[in-house]
Structure formats: structure tokens, C-alpha cells
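To close the chapter, one final illustration. This time we ask the reader to focus less on the individual chains and more on the assembly as a whole: which components sit near each other, and how the overall shape emerges from the parts.
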Amino acid sequence: MVPLSWFLILGAALFAVGLFGVLARRNAIAILMGIELMLNAVNLNLLAFWRYLWSDSLTGVVFVIVVLAVAAAEVAVGLALIISIYRRRSTIVAEEINLLKW
Amino acid sequence: MIETISWLIPLPPLLAFGLIVLFAYRSNRVSHTLGIGAMLITWALAMSVFLFAVSGGELPVSAEVEWLPTGDSSFNIGIWIDSLTAVTLFFVAWTMLAIFVYSVGYHNYGKARDPKDRPGLPPHAGGIDPMYARFFAFISLFAFGMLALVVTDNLLVLFVGWEIMGMCSYMLIGFWYGKDSAKAAMVKAFMTTRVGDVFMLLGLAYLYWLTGTLTYSEILFNPETLERLATTPSVLGPGTSAAALIALLFFIGTVGKSAQWPLHTWLPDAMEGPTPVSAMIHAATMVSAGIYLILRIFPLISAGWQPGEPLPDIMVIIAFIGAFTALFASTLAIGQNDIKRVLAYSTISQLGYMVAAVGIGAFVAAAFHLVVHAFFKGLLFLGSGSVIHGVEHGAHETGDHIDPNDMTHMGGLWKKMPLTFWTFLIGGLTLAGFPIVTAGFWSKDEILAEAFGTGHIAVFIVLALAAFITAFYIMRQITMTFLGKPRSEAAKHAHESTWTMTVPLVVLAIFSVTIGWAGIPRGFPVLSSLVPNWVQEFVDATLLEPAEALEFNSIPLLVSVSVALGGLLIGYLMYRRLEAGAPDPLARLGRVYVWIQDKFYFDELYDFLFVRPAYWFAETFVYRGIDRRVIDGFLHWVAGLAGRLGGFLRNKIDLPIINGTADLVGEGVKTASHEGRVIQTGRIQTYLVVGIIFTGALLSYIFFLL
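The assembled structure is written out below.
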């Protein structure tokens, strides 16, 4: 059986890739995608821990489903914001969206 | 029932005043309807009280309610209707009603308003007075003051009514306040009467201090209180009684209000007011209030004195002032050419008669003359107003610029204004005491008879002399005004006044004649058997100890008849052929005539003694000395001190410490935020890096250090 650590390493790798995407990409959609990756990395960790340590209860699975639902909602709101910004400013580059500055 | 009616007597005019001032003043018609309507109601109430009193109703009618609690006791107001009140109400109601109606015509109601007329000035050319409604408001308030004074049962409310009349007098004398002379007259009247009022207030205070009450029934009709007051030494010293001092203080109030010498100077000047005002205030009612007061307090004046005894000092003073004023003012009247001023001096003189009568203890005679005088003097004033009106009309028609009050421009008016002439003649003959037919004969004769009969020969001689001069000046006035030939174009074109002015004249003329029949002395040949001496019996009942009527004596009667007829005859003979522009026949008296014309220089004397020192005191002492130097100096010193203190506070405390701190906080925040804002890049990823670094740091802290 695949040991738990492999899953955790994969989760950490996915999280790091997602974090890099969020920090490094200029495109707002790509940043959102990075966030999705990070969420899924967390989901992976949750499932792995559930499977190996608390498989007799449903807690882990339910938690993952909740995270997925929240992620879906977040993406929907995020994309709507991006579309709205694009309509007003014809750009989705993150550093040009500086309305909150000062 | 009769009590309720008595309570209600003064109220309608007050209500009318309020309604006119607040609501009705825009409409002349509503205003005079309110004023006259209220007066009519009051008249009806007063007449019912009078009829109740004379038809043998039980007197006095009195009632009172609690008004002000004063410590342990309470101050009550109430009504007191005795025979004196009843006769006073009778003449007050009649003359006031007549004057209210007369005012409608006098102020040209029904004529269009002349656009050139200004409020505060008499109408130029017979237009309605611009302040018509205001006039009715004022005289309504005035009527309230007089009626309250008459029906009240205590001296304090009497004083309140007294002062209301003083104020209304001030406002009405200055009704045409656009004229400088009216302004001066209003101030003079108010100030002069105030001198008397202050003393009267002192008297009130002293009386209240001694007795703890001001109600008539507890002082004037209470023999114990009177006895106590008469025997208590006053604050002035052992020789004087408290009753005498109080009576003297009240009497000084009367001297001011009834314009007795030496406070007489305001009344002639008060003729600046409209003529109905002169009639109402300065003949029929307000000056009568002064006499009413001394009649009212007669028990106090005569406390400790029995008829037949020598007069106490206070009564000697009153008799002297009255007799002197009667003679003095009548001599002044002969030098006047202003038709109203003659009557003003005549009023002073006649009031002097009444005062003298009170002084010699002739209570009934004084009251009788008060009533008669109110009617005939009201009549004479209203008649003179009608004459002035007629001459003014003539002057407008002919374009003559003359003083319509000046009798030297008149003459021959009897053909133009017959009704005015006949009524004025009746009034004049009544004033002169024309024998038998006029009321003035009976009332004046009664005073003379009392003076003679009680042995006050000096008073008798002075009053008889005054009666002679009175007959002379009134005949001079009648002759100059109505008889002979017109001495100006205006007089030729004068015409009779409207019915609202002549009807009151006729009513008052009827009373001027008929009132006398109620007071024909007992023992008078023939006539006394026809009519009982009703006045004597009725009015005397006011006093606790009614005086006995005197035995009839023919000497004062003969003197009275001869001075009246003699004065009238001489007056007629001297003035019947007066030509226009000719000097007054009296000018032959030389210097004496000049003195009379200049009113014996009393105005100048008072100007020198009181007015100018007052101005000097105000200007030099109070203004320059106290005001400028002491008060202003102190104020400037305080202001300088405050300025320096303020400077210190500002420069040493406010600016460096308080402003400094506040600025430091503000500037500090500003600088810090200016410096700190560079970290707020607005780039989401920078924030995220910062967030991650701090999260990492926090996690590291939790994991590795805890």
C-alpha cells in the first residue's frame, strides 16, 4: 500500500505549485487557478489523513465536499469580479488593478 | 344677581381693547362697533346697578374673592357699591358712552382716508384718522381703568386703575405723536402725575403697614381702625396722626391726578390730544378719579374730626389747595385764546372747588359738584371739539391757514352751528352757575353755602371770587366763539358737525340741566317743596355718620347769583364787539394780563427749578461724571485687564501648549501615514507575500518556540 507520506509530499508539491502560481502569475485567472490548486492540495491532505487515520468516520469526506462547494462558489464570485473589472478597465493583469491603493 | 352685574361692569371695555388690538384693528367698522358695543353693555350694567341703588336696594353691595396669597393672609379683590360708587358710575357711564359715540364723528368715520395723512398726525383735510382703530382700543382700555377704579373695594385695585388711566392718558395725549408739542405734552403729563402717584404709593404702603389691609370696609368703614389711625402718631412726629399723614399722601396723588396747584401744569398741555380725549380724560373721568379718591377716603381725612369743630391741619391744607387752585386757575383761563385751554383751566378751577369742598368737610357738595361737573365739562369739551371741527372744515374750504383752536378767529358761529351753540351755551351757563335752571347753580351754590354756613369765610370769599371769574371767562369764550361777527373766512364757512357728534352734545346738555333738580337744598324758596333734596340723602348715606344738612341761608345764595350773573354780563359786554385783529380788551390790564397769558410763569419756574437741574444733573453729573468717568472708567479698566489676561492665555498657553499638542498629534499622524503608505502598493500579490511571510513566521513561532 502506498505510504501516507507520498500523499503528503504530492499534496505539498501541489500546494507549492499553486502558491507559486498565485504569487508569480500576472493574469488574474491564473491566480484563481493557483488558488484552486492550493485548495485541492489541502483536499488531498484531508483525504489522505482520513483514509489512514480516521477511516471509520465520515468527517474527512464531508469536509472535502464542503471545501469543494466553497471553492466552486469562490471561483464563481472571483470570475464574476474579473469579468466586471475587465469590462471597466479592459485588463485582467493583477498589478494594473490597483483601485484599493491609497 | 346685583353682585354679578357689578363684577361685570369693567370687563366689556377690557375685552374690547384686547379684541381690537389683537384681531379687529384692520377694520375701522369692527373696531368702533366693538368699542361702542362694549361701552353700551357696560352702560347698561352700570345703569342697572345705579337703578338698584336709587330704588332703595340694600347698600353697600360687596363681594370679594381671594386673589393673591400674601404669607399667612391673602389679598382679596372685590366690588364695593355704595351710594358714592353708584352716582360715580352714573356719570362715568353716561359721559363715556357719549364720548365713545362722539369719537366716531370726530375722527371722520365714513370719509375716505386721505393718502397724504400719516399715522401720528391729525388728518389734513377731513379724512378718517389713520389710527382710528387704535383710538378705540385706547379709550376702551381707559374706560376699563376708570370703571375698575370705581367699582373696586380696595385701594390697591383703585391704584391699579389709576395707573392704567395714567398710561392711557399718556398714550392718548400723544395720540398724534408726530407733533412735537404732543410728544412734549405726553411726557409732561406722565411725569407730573407720576410725582403725585409716588406719594400715593407711599401712602398705600404706610396704610398697609399700619393696618395690614387695604379694603375699604376694614379701614374706611371701621370706626375702630379709624380711631386707631387718628390717635397713632405718624412717623413724622408726635404732633401728627397717622391718618392725617396717609390722607396727605393720598391727597398729593389727587393733586397730581386732578391737576391741582402746584401740579396743575400738565393739564392745559394735555389739550394736544384729540378732543374726545380731552373730554373723557381731562374733564369727565380721569381727573374726576382724583376727586373720587379723596371722597372715598373722606373718613380717613376727617378721622377724629366732628362737623362744627375747627378743621384739623390736613383739612386746612386740602381746603387751601383747593380754594387757591379754584381762584388761580380761573384767572389763568381768562388769558387764554385757545378754546380748549380755557376749558382746561376751567377744569382745574372746578376741581379745585371740589377739593376745597372736601377740605371744609362738605362731602355731599363735593360729590354733587363732581357729577354735575362731569356732565357739563364733558359737554363743553365735546362742544369745543365740534367748533374746532367746523372751523377746520371752513379753513379747508377757504384755504385759510389759521389755528382752528384760536378763538380770536371765530365769532358768529351760532348761525352756522346752531346745535353746537345751544348745547355749548347750556354747558357754559351751567359752568357759570346760571341761577335756577342749570345744575351748576345748585352744586356750586351748595359748596358756597357749606363754606359760609360752617364759618369758613375765607374759603367762601375765594370761591365766590373764583365763581365770578368763572362766569366771566366762560361768557368771554361763548361771546368770542359764537356771538358777534365772524372774524375769519374760515369761521364764515364753518358748518354743523355730523349727528354722531351732536347727539352726545344734546344728551349731555339735558343732564347738565336736569341733574341739578336732584340736589335743591332744603328750605330753598318754593322749589324745595316740589323736589326733595335727593342727592343729600342718598350720597350722605356713604358715610358712617351722615352730616346734617345745613339750614338754608340766603346770603351765599345771593352772592352766588350775583357773581354768576355779574360775570356773565361783564363777559358779554366786554367781548361782544371784538373786531378781528383787535387786542383783547383785557390787555388794558397791562402787565397783569401778560402774567396771566404767561400762566404766572409756572412752566418757566418748574423748568428752572426741576427740568433744567434734572438735565444738568443728567448731563454733567450722571453722564459725564458717573457714566463716563466712573462706570466707563471701571469698565475700561476691566476690559483692559481682561484683554491682558486674554493675551497671556493666548500667547503663553493656548498657542504653545494646546495648539502645539493638537498640531503635534495631527502632524505626527500625517507624517507617519505619509511615510507608511509606500508599503500599500495596491498589488494583491505583494500583500499575499507579506501574509505568507507573517503566517510562516507565526507558524514557526508556534512550532519551534512553544
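DSSP finds three helices and no strands in chain A. Helices of chain A lie at 4-24, 28-53, 59-89. With these observations in hand, you are ready for the problems at the end of the chapter.
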